[in-house]
Amino acid sequence: MNEFPFGFNMPNPDDPDRGKQGGDGQENPFDQLGQMLSQLGQMMSQASTSSGPVNYDLAKQIAVQKLAGQIGFTAPAEAHTAVTDAVHLAEMWLDPVTTLPAGATSTKAWTAKDWVEHTLPTWQRLCDPVAKRMAGAWVEALPAEAKAQAGPLLAMVGQMGGMAFGSQLGNALAQLGSEVLTVTDIGLPLGPDATAALLPANIEEFTKGLERPASEVMVFIAAREAAHQRLFAHVPWLRQRLLGAVEEFANGIKVDISALEELATQVDPANPATIEQAMQSGMLEPKTTPEQQAALARLETLLALVEGWVDLVVGEAVTDRLPGADALRETMRRRRASGGPAEQTFATLVGLELRPRRLRAATALWRMITDQHGMATRDGLWAHPDLMPTAEDLDEPIDFTQRLGATPADDPIAQLERTEQSERAADEDKPGDDKTGDDK
């Protein structure tokens, strides 16, 4: 894991141009300001050019170069066949345990390089808010006079910042690409719509030490991917809610201006050691705001509901067919809930840990709903976000299940419409809304 806060990169201490004086041997104060801006731009990924806050071309280039020595660029034909067969079998097993039909219209066997290329557009959507906030916060805090004096330097610093963030993103994508098993492995819809994609080389590495046949693990992973794709394809609001929660968290980033002022007194642009000390002190790390905490809570609850639903339906689909299904389910639960290197890398990029911390509670709730009200009612709750269980419902699953049974359980949308009608009627009956009683 990167030892520095997300969105930051250390400047190059070997740069021969760092700390040079003017032609008269005296350091100009404006030169010192320019050096400070350059250093801060590198550290905080400052970006203000029209090309955007992150150099994604550089990110892709670095990721591909790092992965070139780890995993081949072309998945063999037998890998494509194995993935296609596994997904086809998984879809047949899933059909009887959920009302949501198959969501993937295309099945792919990706290399890590493929994963980088096909998920980069989504990473751009997730990382841009972080880079923009980090770039703009400290520039906005500069006095007007300093902004005017430093104006010509800001575009250059923006390019440097874009390269800095792009470099960090590229390294992170390389690490993620060497670990993820499927395109939905971290719980977000990172890839193209309706595309079920597995990474056979990573699955092969994951299988080592599990003491299960490779074909069994492949089918199990395929079932999880197919279940995720059913949700993302047939729950129209889900993709936007998940990605939107991440964006909302990133947009709420606030930099402590007082820390910047303290940094200015402690950092010598000509001395890399002072910059390193400032970075390791954490003084520039953004503080989590109440708004971000609320966004994070919503994201974690929704992730838990997604992962819990997938865990349940996959378990129902494969438990009687794969001898090692229970052990594989437990392995995946721990992998997702505890957070591995992939989740840690995500935290360095976006500033939050992408974990479904309430996964077991969500699985238990979905199980209770299924047992008491049936599969159709359980899956019908995905029809509208207002029908979904909340974090409080994960704490009190019995209460939620009982409320669900208090009205006709076979039509959640009708239940929602009745609730909305009641609320509208209550609003119309509020005193003071009648305009006919004007005595003037």
TrEMBL record:
Basic and acidic residues bias spans: 417-440
Record carries keyword Hydrolase: yes
GO molecular function annotations of the record: hydrolase activity
Superkingdom of source: Bacteria
Region (Disordered) location: 1-29, 400-440
UniProt entry keywords in alphabetical sequence: Hydrolase
This protein's name: Hydrolase
Organism annotation: Actinokineospora globicatena
